[in-house]
Each structure stands twice: as structure tokens, then as C-alpha cells.
Amino acid sequence: MTAESAAPGPAAETGEEHVSTARPVPLFNIANVLTMSRLVLVPLFLIALFSAGGHDPVWRWVATAVFVLASVTDRIDGDLARRHGLITDFGKIADPIADKALTGAALVGLSVLGDLPWWVTLVIVARELIVTLLRFWVIRHGVIPASRGGKLKTMLQAIAIGLYLLPLGESGELLQWTVMGTAVVATVATGLDYMVRALRLRAVGNRARNRQE
After folding, report:
1. Which one of 8, 123, 163, 167 has the minimum C-beta count within 10 Å?
2. What's the structural domain count of the chain?
3. Phi/psi-derived region of residue 53, left when phi > 0, alpha when psi is between -120 and 50, beta in every other case
4. Backbone angle region of 205, left / alpha / beta, with phi > 0 → left and psi within -120 to 50 → alpha
5. 11 belongs to a structural domain
6. Which of 17-26, 37-46, 111-120, 125-134 has the lowest mean pLDDT?
7. Residue 209 in domain
């Protein structure tokens, strides 16, 4: 041992240990607040959608505006979380749940009003429910972040739902079906991809636990 390495450092001289200055991310931050605000907008959206029988053009525009506002918060809270280091496990779980609540409410509402076939709603809602259950199934092994395909799926769903919310009439049916059909395909494909990723994560976690035992 050299004299230099044996010499006490500043921590030894002061009797203090080195402590990391990294601060934990607070749970109550602007990104998480925006996520929760999206959940608050869901009942307001449904009120607007079903007002005046559900087919009044003015109220449909109001419902569309609320839906768009809620959808925009999804992009904003994600950007804020990444840019300012506000990513939390709560946000990783709450954000997709808020998305599913908004999307599910819109799809079910449109189907109840007879504007969207129930099979479309059932396929998308079933996929989102399965993914949510998988998310909690593997949560002790890790959190699966959103993939690019998942983000594309979310965008396609939002655009498709927005088109169905707008009072376009028969002139917009072809566009509505084209975008919604693409969204359904993306929904199923990304759902299968998520299942594979969840199974892999759980397998890796189980192997690591077995090695520790």
C-alpha cells in the first residue's frame, strides 16, 4: 500500500460518508398531474357525448374537443417526464391506464350510440384489458415501457375515434373505416408483441430468482 493510498481522504477527515446527491423524483409532479387530469376529463367527455341524444352536431364538436384535449395531455406529460427527469413507476402504470380509460369510454360510447360496430370496440377493449393484466402480472419483474408500435397504435386509435366523434355524416364513412381498420390491425399486432415481451420479462425474472435461491 502506498503512502498516498493510505492517506485519509476528505470523508475520513470529516468523519462523513459520501452520500449521493441525486434526488428522488417526487410522486406529485406536473407529468403525473396531467396524467390524472386525463382521467378527470373522461366523465366530462361522456357527458358531452351523450348530451342531446348523442347526435347533436354542437355537442359532438364539444365531445371531440374534450377528447382531443385529453389526448394532447398524453403527449405533453410524456415529454415533460422525459425532458425533466420526472419518470416514475406510478407514471409508467397510471399513464397507460388513463389512456385506456379515455379510449374505452369513447369506443363504448360510440357503440352505444350505434355509430361504431360493437365488434370493433370489443377487439380493442379486450386487447387493452389483456395488456393491462399482463402489466401487473410482470410488474415485480420490471416495467415494460411503451414501444414505438404501441405509440403508433395509440395515435391511430385517437385519430380514428376523433373521426367517428365528428359529425361527418355519410361523406366521412370511407375515411372513418379506413383509419379505424388500420387502428384495429395495429391494436392486435402490438398486443401480440406485448404478450411476447411480457413472457420474456417474466422468464428472465424467474431465472434470476432461481439463481439467487
Report:
1. 8
2. 1
3. left
4. alpha
5. no
6. 17-26
7. no
Q: Which residue has the cell 502506498?
A: 2
Distances (CA, A) of 24 to 16, 81, 91, 139: 21, 14, 14, 20
Q: What span, in angstroms and rounded, lies between the C-alpha atoms of 80 and 35?
A: 11
Q: Which domain holds residue 175?
A: 26-204
Cell numbers at residue 35, please? 396524467
Burial class of 36 by CB neighbour count within 10 A (0 to 12, 13 to 18, 19+): middle
- What CA–CA distances, in Å, run from 166 to 4, 5, 115, 181? 75, 73, 11, 17
CATH number at residue 108: 1.20.120.1760
Task: Note the pTM of the prediction, 2 decimals.
Answer: 0.75
Q: Looking at the domain assignment, is residue 16 inside a domain?
A: no
Q: How far is CA 54 from CA 64, 110, 114, 116, in A?
A: 12, 9, 10, 13
Q: How many CB atoms lie within 10 A of CB 2?
A: 6
Cα distance from N-terminal residue to C-terminal residue, the chain: 38
